[in-house]
Task: inverse folding
């Protein structure tokens, strides 16, 4: 059965985040009672996910390298690592190195329960690996090609492992041509455990209700949404079960795709799309 | 009053999951027996062997330390309470208070040692430390009781929280299992005792207790989940599999056990996990 390979330090998982850094990512989206630029919401979500992964894989001796992670930005004239600080310029980085090298650790306030029905503000440490960048067009085809190279090397090195997972977060149409063939090329790589997974998330431009993890094109509003749907892989069974446990309606054709995502569905997309089989 | 017969010795075998080092094994086991006979609540001479196993949850920090502490505290709480199963809530309170006290002292020492090594607790460890460590715990007492007519009878009494299991074997065949009876009962979210859980009532509600009688020659096995699932899948495997002899664990040393576990894993008969077995034959 595909997508059941054990994830261990000798057979680690591979996550590649592709982050749209085009100019339109500076447009605002609702974030609680205020608004935030889309790029800020996305970079916060990625930073939080890297934090959660590090915490999840932390043991007494440090963070275990159950995963290698790349964060690739694509925008004006540039496709490449979005890491900042010590990791700047690096592509796939073992999780222990990620955890030990945030660009900075901010102190942020968070509201938590006071145990008596109220909320109190408390200070939490918030590591930052990437900041929002917004500039120029959306070279999605080049970004998928960049991921294709990383994935190609990875499956050569880990032919029996869990296949790489590529998560693409964008708010617009590709400005460097139809990305379909690049997506097909990317998903044509496979390990013995199955083909590479490509999940796509489209960040809200209109504010309407998000369409999360659809299993057909029917409810999608336009050809662009349908294109992203077609580019997205079907969710493996363990992610499907997890999505169902989080209240999503799923079927065997459910794809790793969210259209018109709000802040909540961005977090859910990352949570479900990076859900691992059991770590050993 | 008749003489107390010699208590059996507990045999402890374990191996870590494939791909981990020995130091990373998060199972723990402990056994203890008194050199002197005691007296039960009915005034009869008794002697007991106590044993416990615990499986630390891999997704928690310091799970191995918590499991190690729990097995020693479980044995201590059983030993000090006498007929501990009679008042379960009192037993659970004693175990939880004892382990919480030891855990707090351990954590203070651990954090001081880390600071002294120039490796203070990092941001990625802090949430795990705040959440606490989690582990299953299974404790058992094998008790020899000398009756009024001078004969000795053997009983076992056990408690369990989670999916570590006890098996009673007679003539090499499975007679009883506790707390799980079928391989389908193994879930991915077993009951666990958390180092920061102080809800005695909840834990007492979740804790299972059982007992049985042992005849001379009977064996009692305490195992963590991978071997327990192996035992129960064997039971479900039909007559032929049930009738085939169990490995001669009595003759195994650590290496034999590790080799046997490796072989079972290679045949996809056993999950890749830490494996612990405590065994005693009366």
Result:
């Amino acid at each position: 059965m595909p997508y059941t390979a054990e994830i261990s330090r000798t057979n680690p998982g591979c996550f590649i985040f592709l982050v749209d850094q085009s100019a339109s990512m500076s447009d605002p989206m609702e974030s609680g009672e205020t608004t935030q630029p889309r790029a800020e919401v996305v970079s916060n979500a990625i930073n939080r996910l890297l934090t959660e992964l590090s915490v999840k894989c932390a043991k007494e001796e440090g963070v275990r390298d159950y995963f290698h992670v790349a964060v690739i930005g694509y925008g004006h004239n540039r496709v490449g690592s979005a890491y900042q600080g010590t990791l700047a310029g690096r592509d796939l980085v073992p999780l222990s190195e990620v955890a030990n090298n945030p660009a900075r650790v901010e102190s942020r306030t968070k509201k938590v329960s006071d145990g008596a029905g109220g909320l109190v503000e408390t200070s939490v440490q918030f590591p930052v690996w990437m900041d929002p960048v917004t500039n120029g067009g959306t070279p999605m085809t080049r970004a998928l090609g960049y991921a294709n190279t990383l994935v190609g090397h990875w499956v050569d090195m880990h032919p029996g492992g869990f296949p790489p997972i590529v998560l693409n977060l964008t708010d617009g149409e590709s400005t460097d041509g139809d990305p379909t063939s690049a997506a097909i090329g990317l998903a044509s790589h496979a390990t013995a455990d199955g083909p590479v997974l490509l999940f796509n998330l489209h960040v809200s431009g209109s504010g309407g209700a998000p369409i999360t993890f659809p299993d057909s094109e029917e409810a999608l509003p336009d050809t662009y949404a349908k294109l992203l749907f077609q580019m997205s892989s079907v969710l493996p069974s363990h992610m499907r079960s997890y999505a169902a446990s989080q209240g999503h309606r799923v079927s065997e054709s459910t794809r790793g795709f969210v259209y018109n995502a709000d802040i909540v569905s961005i977090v859910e997309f990352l949570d479900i799309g990076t859900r691992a089989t059991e770590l050993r | 009053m008749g003489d107390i017969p010699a208590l059996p010795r507990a045999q402890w075998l374990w191996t870590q999951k494939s791909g981990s080092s020995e130091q990373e094994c998060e199972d723990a086991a402990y056994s203890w027996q008194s050199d002197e006979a005691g007296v039960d609540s009915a005034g009869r001479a008794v002697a007991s062997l106590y044993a416990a196993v615990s499986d630390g949850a891999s997704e928690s920090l310091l799970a191995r330390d918590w499991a190690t502490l729990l097995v020693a505290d479980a044995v201590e709480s059983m030993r000090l309470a006498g007929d501990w199963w009679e008042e379960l809530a009192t037993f659970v309170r004693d175990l939880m208070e004892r382990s919480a006290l030891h855990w707090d002292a351990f954590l203070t020492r651990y954090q001081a040692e880390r600071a002294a090594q120039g490796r203070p607790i990092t941001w990625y460890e802090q949430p795990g430390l705040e959440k606490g460590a989690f582990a299953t715990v299974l404790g058992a007492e094998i008790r020899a009781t000398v009756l009024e007519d001078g004969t000795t009878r053997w009983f076992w009494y056990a408690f369990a929280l989670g999916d570590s299991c006890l098996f009673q074997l007679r003539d090499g065949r499975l007679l009883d299992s506790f707390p799980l009876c079928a391989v389908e009962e193994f879930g991915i979210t077993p009951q666990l005792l958390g180092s920061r859980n102080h809800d005695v009532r909840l834990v007492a509600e979740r804790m299972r207790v059982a007992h049985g009688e042992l005849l001379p020659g009977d064996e009692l096995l305490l195992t963590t989940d991978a071997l327990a699932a192996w035992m129960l899948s064997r039971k479900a495997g039909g007559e032929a599999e049930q009738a085939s002899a169990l490995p001669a664990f009595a003759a195994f040393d650590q290496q034999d056990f590790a080799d046997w576990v490796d072989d079972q894993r290679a045949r996809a008969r056993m999950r890749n996990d830490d494996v612990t077995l405590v065994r005693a034959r009366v």
User: Anything to note?
Assistant: Chain A is about 30% helix and 30% strand. Residues 13-102+128-273 of chain A form a domain with the Rossmann fold fold (CATH 3.40.50.410). The first helix of chain A runs from residue 38 to 56. Chain A touches chain B at residues 6, 8-10, 51, 54-56, 58-60, 63, 99, 105, 125, 127, 278-280 (CB under 8 Å).
